[in-house]
Structures are given as structure tokens and as C-alpha cells.
Design goal:
globular, single chain
């Protein structure tokens, strides 16, 4: 009979570091002492499910931080006509979006009864107040001066949002890039008040129709258009998944931050960042 030599034990190799008294460890590099000490349930004694709620939202904020980082970089690269690395940033952004959307499945394990126990400890706090989420929306073009006012209590964050409000969005920089490449982008889109959200422009639909008629001749632009559509599609999936989880958890109760809850979230599904990239699809093949 053959002897099974497999074992549940793995010997440490001689070269593996063991002494970190004077060397950087994994925990040192990631500041895990601070990161893992940042969860502070307010319930006393702590409710079992409050830790889930806290970690869910803290990890979302970490992913949002990376999204802001990558979106800023993609915007900067488009401004300097570096399309290839900008596309690399968009590819990473899409993967981060998938992580954010998939996380809702974890929070969806929280039943209405379990959430009802936690909810009083949230007081008036709400994800609506996430400054990083607003930074992502502003970078993608959903500008709102009204939203800046929500952060009067946080002057540093408010100043950052106000700066983003008046700066070109990722889409604005893409349109400027198209103009420099010789595409007939309407002048009104290049010299406008960037603090206002972008509105559908039929002249820009014409530009994209030309690109989609001959994709091989405009491959870089064509690819960027499709990457942007992917980003918006992912964002809408995140919004819809959020709506679903809230619906199954609190029904039609108002949100903790004072919103109407589900109805407020449902209206967000009508928002669009890149309307011409969807409008052009009606033109293709006709």
C-alpha cells in the first residue's frame, strides 16, 4: 500500500525572517495597530452585528480612497495626452467598482431585525455624508454646489470638494483631449462653468457617431468611450445594489441622514455622467 506523504504541517524555510525587533514587519508597513483598532461599536454591551456594519463601511471608504486616487490620475493623464496609461487607470477603476458592488452581498446578510437593533446608534450619520463618495461623483461629473454645503462641519473636506466642483471632470478632460485630436467638440463644452453638471449636447453625439462609424480609424478614442461606459454601468450597478440592500433591510423608512430612503436612492438611478455615450447608440447602424 502506498504511503500518503502529504502533511498538514509546512516547515518554515531557513531564509524566512523571524526577528522584527529592528526590521519592518507586515503589520508595521500597513499600520495594522491603528487600522484594526479603528472599529468602535457604540452599543453596550456590543451588539454582534454592529462590527459587520462598521467594517463594511470602513472598507468601502478605503476602496473609495483608491477610486479618487485613480480617477485623479486618469484625469491628469488625459490632460497631458497620455491616453494609454489613462486607460490602464480606468481598467483598475472598474475592478475597484466590482469590489464595492460585491460588498453589498455581505451587508445583505443583516436582517431587518438585526439592523433595527443597530440603527439607534447611528443617530444622524449616513453614507450620504461620505466626502469621498462625493469626490468620486464630482470627478465623474455629477457636480452639485448644494452638496458642498453638507460639509460645513468639516472645513478641510469642504474646501477639497469646492475645488473639485470648479475643476474639469474626467469627462471634461476627455472632451478637451478630443478637441486637441481634431474632433469637432462644440466650443460651449470646452469653455463652460465646470461647477455645473454636464448636460446632453447633440453636437457631441455627432462627434461620437463619427467615431463609432469608423472605430478602426479612431481606436484609442473608441476604446476610451467604451471604458467610460463600463465605468458608468458599474456605477449604476453599485447604486442599484445599494437600493436593493436598503429595501430589504429597512423597507420604506426614512434614511438616518434625513433622506426619504429608498425613494431618494431610486431617483439616483436616473443620473448619468456621460449622456452622449448612451445617446450615440441609437444612431449606430441606422
Amino acid at each position: 500500500m502506498a504511503t500518503d506523504e502529504r502533511s498538514s504541517r509546512r516547515e518554515l524555510e531557513d531564509g524566512i525572517e523571524r526577528d522584527f525587533s529592528k526590521r519592518m514587519s507586515y503589520a508595521d508597513y500597513l499600520h495594522l495597530d491603528q487600522l484594526l483598532a479603528a472599529q468602535h461599536p457604540l452599543s453596550d454591551p456590543p451588539l454582534h452585528d454592529e462590527l459587520l456594519f462598521i467594517i463594511q463601511h470602513q472598507t468601502s471608504e478605503l476602496w473609495l480612497k483608491l477610486l479618487v486616487h485613480e480617477l485623479r490620475s486618469a484625469r491628469r493623464l488625459l490632460r497631458s495626452d497620455d491616453l494609454a496609461p489613462a486607460l490602464k487607470r480606468l481598467a483598475r477603476i472598474k475592478h475597484v467598482q466590482h469590489c464595492l458592488t460585491d460588498q453589498w452581498s455581505v451587508l445583505a446578510t443583516l436582517t431587518p431585525s438585526e439592523y433595527a437593533e443597530i440603527r439607534p446608534y447611528l443617530a444622524t450619520s449616513s453614507g450620504f455624508q461620505s466626502v469621498q463618495y462625493r469626490e468620486v461623483e464630482f470627478l465623474l461629473g455629477n457636480k452639485s454646489a448644494e452638496m458642498v454645503e453638507v460639509f460645513d462641519h468639516d472645513p478641510v473636506s469642504q474646501a477639497e470638494l469646492r475645488t473639485l466642483l470648479h475643476e474639469p471632470s474626467l469627462y471634461d478632460e476627455f472632451l478637451a483631449f478630443l478637441h486637441r485630436r481634431g474632433h469637432a467638440v462644440p466650443a460651449g463644452l470646452l469653455e463652460r462653468d465646470f461647477s455645473l453638471p454636464h448636460r446632453l449636447d447633440e453636437g457631441l453625439v455627432d462627434v461620437f457617431a463619427h467615431v463609432y462609424e469608423k472605430p478602426a480609424e479612431h481606436w484609442g478614442v473608441y476604446e476610451t468611450c467604451e471604458e467610460l461606459v463600463d465605468v458608468e454601468d458599474n456605477f449604476q450597478q453599485w447604486r442599484f445594489r445599494h437600493l436593493q440592500v436598503v429595501t430589504r433591510t429597512i423597507g420604506h423608512k426614512p434614511g438616518t441622514g434625513g433622506s426619504s430612503g429608498v425613494d431618494f436612492l431610486r431617483r439616483a438611478l436616473d443620473l448619468t455622467f456621460f449622456p452622449e455615450l448612451y445617446a450615440v447608440r441609437t444612431r449606430i447602424g441606422t
